[in-house]
Amino acid sequence: MTAGLRLWLGLGTALAALAGLSLCIGAASLFSGDLGTGWLIAVSRFPRTAAALLAGMGLALAGVVIQQTVQNRLVEPALTGTPEAAMLGLLGVTLIAPGAAPVWKMAAATASALIGTAGFLALARRIPRQDPMLLPLVGLIYGGILGSAGLWLAWTTDLVQYLGIWRLGEFSGVVQGRYELLWGIAALALLVYAAADRITLLGLGETQARSLGLNYAQTRTLGLVAVAAITALVIVTVGALPFVGLVAPNLVSRWRGDNLRANLPLVAAGGAGMVLAADILGRVLREPYEIPAATVFGVFGAGVFLWLLYAAPGPARNG
Amino acid sequence: MIEVRSLSYAAGATPILHEVGLDLAPRGITALIGPNGAGKSTLLHCIAGLARPGAGTVRIDGLDPFAVPDRRRARQVALLQQSPTVASRLRVAELVGFGRWPHHAGRPGPEDARVVAEALTAFELDALAARPLDTLSGGQRQRAMVAMAYAQATPWLLLDEPLNALDPRHARDLMARLHDLSRPGPDGRAVVVVLHDINAAALWADRVVAMKDGRVIASAGADEVLRAEILEEVFDTRFEIVPHRGRQLVVTL
């Protein structure tokens, strides 16, 4: 058995075990007979499990794409103003057309996320590269400004409650009929994987990538669309999940490097598994109450972020 | 043959290149020298089709680099930028492998594997092949980048200050390697290299192009350009020429 096959068998088993656990855990017992087992799984448990896996996979991939695009691995979709921009779009559509179908809300969120992320990329081109900490800080401030605009808008229009829901990602509200948009992430994941080599080339910087024959502008736009659409999908259906796009790509990169053709599936599986694990933990830690998955992941993610900062492989020495 | 005609380039309102006209021979090493800000890097970027000039034309073996598809251009000319800041954790062999991207676009074949193996050996990278780039020293990373550009297997290889970060032995070895692969022959490449070390140009270059303030001051054989009066005009400092084993070395005074 090759090392690669062993790795995938192990990962597949772990993901299947997590998914199995997620299907079994919940307020109602699967086998008490009060509710039909099949009905419970189809309406609540399977959607919730699938939503956690899809959201985790999507955000992890979006993290890789944005990191390669700006050549900075301390950046993730939550540090680029993307979620705040998506929320602004959602607020806008809620104000203008409160009864709009989810697809239209989704479209508005994606469009504003695109504009917001493009704004961040424009900023990133003007930030000197010497200190990698600078860009995430700029992203934090940029997101803060967009977020404040959103809060002001929500405050003046009595929509602050919505903002609270979008800001804190959790899966307790996921039932059949309310999460299916997330399957769009599966399609976007395939698109990103098809462009794996091109996205790796983005990570070499514009001059080197173009010298190797990459259509840089086109690839950057493709990445931008993927990041904005994935983030918007997650915000609309389950709310923001910070740190996922930072943790999964960085752990895989430390372990296996940055050849995305080989490693993107690992990043996707890692993000999916970690978000599902966070959701399961949130369900069992304080039964019968639930802790939002974003909160559980935030504790874990912040720890990993600190580790990344202090245990950096370091700017390679000169010599 | 690279033909540059009346090439002008401006960054915003700041003119960088003025009506540059230049012919580059299709074999050997051409060294591009000149003070900081002379426009050497910009000229390389324009030739490689990466910076679109405001006026003028570039032809690489008759090819207009701005009119052909990106990958076609990348099979004709390779540019290695100055001090590339690469944050990627690609392994050395993977990076060099990406030099083949314009040839295979994602589906490498046996020929690609052969060229990559040859490039790794040529630049003494076999022992480092599995190392991630961010664990290398500046000089090792520089050699990996040159190997990538080499693996691109283009008739034209443009290198912007490749000796940065290299110690004397590796600098010498790189110039010797460039010298070998630029000799006339079926696989001979043309190498255009920006050098700050004038003596590296004196020792290894067949031709020298001296630039100042966005203009070409002199373009000829190394011995004709590396003369005290030309160097003094270009660099605004005094030089003495010291003959050494049939070459002319340069000392600043």
UniProtKB/TrEMBL annotation, chain A:
Localization per record: Cell membrane
Record keywords: Cell membrane, Membrane, Transmembrane, Transmembrane helix, Transport
Bilayer-crossing regions: 50-66, 78-97, 103-123, 135-155, 181-201, 222-244, 264-281, 293-312
Single Gene Ontology BP annotation: siderophore-iron import into cell
Membrane topology: Multi-pass membrane protein
Entry keyword Cell membrane: yes
UniProt keyword Ribonucleoprotein present: no
GO cellular component: plasma membrane
Name the UniProt record assigns to this protein: Iron complex transport system permease protein
Automatic annotation (TrEMBL), chain B:
Lineage top rank: taxon: Bacteria
PROSITE patterns: ABC_TRANSPORTER_1 (PS00211), ABC_TRANSPORTER_2 (PS50893)
One of the Pfam families matching this protein, by short name: ABC_tran
Keywords: ATP-binding, Cell membrane, Ion transport, Iron, Iron transport, Membrane, Nucleotide-binding, Transport
Localization per Swiss-Prot or TrEMBL: Cell membrane
Alphabetical list of SUPFAM superfamilies matching this protein: P-loop containing nucleoside triphosphate hydrolases
Entry GO terms, CC: plasma membrane
Domain ABC transporter: 2-238
GO-annotated biological processes: iron ion transport
GO molecular function: ATP binding; ATP hydrolysis activity
Cited SMART domains: AAA
Record Gene3D superfamilies: P-loop containing nucleotide triphosphate hydrolases (3.40.50.300)
InterPro entries named among the record's database cross-references: AAA+_ATPase (IPR003593), ABC_transporter-like_ATP-bd (IPR003439), ABC_transporter-like_CS (IPR017871), P-loop_NTPase (IPR027417), Siderophore_ABC-ATPase (IPR051535)
Keyword Cell inner membrane: no
Membrane topology summary: Peripheral membrane protein
PANTHER family: IRON(3+)-HYDROXAMATE IMPORT ATP-BINDING PROTEIN FHUC (PTHR42771), PETROBACTIN IMPORT ATP-BINDING PROTEIN YCLP (PTHR42771:SF3)
Entry's family note: Belongs to the ABC transporter superfamily.
Name of the molecule in the record: Iron complex transport system ATP-binding protein
Record organism: Rhodovulum visakhapatnamense
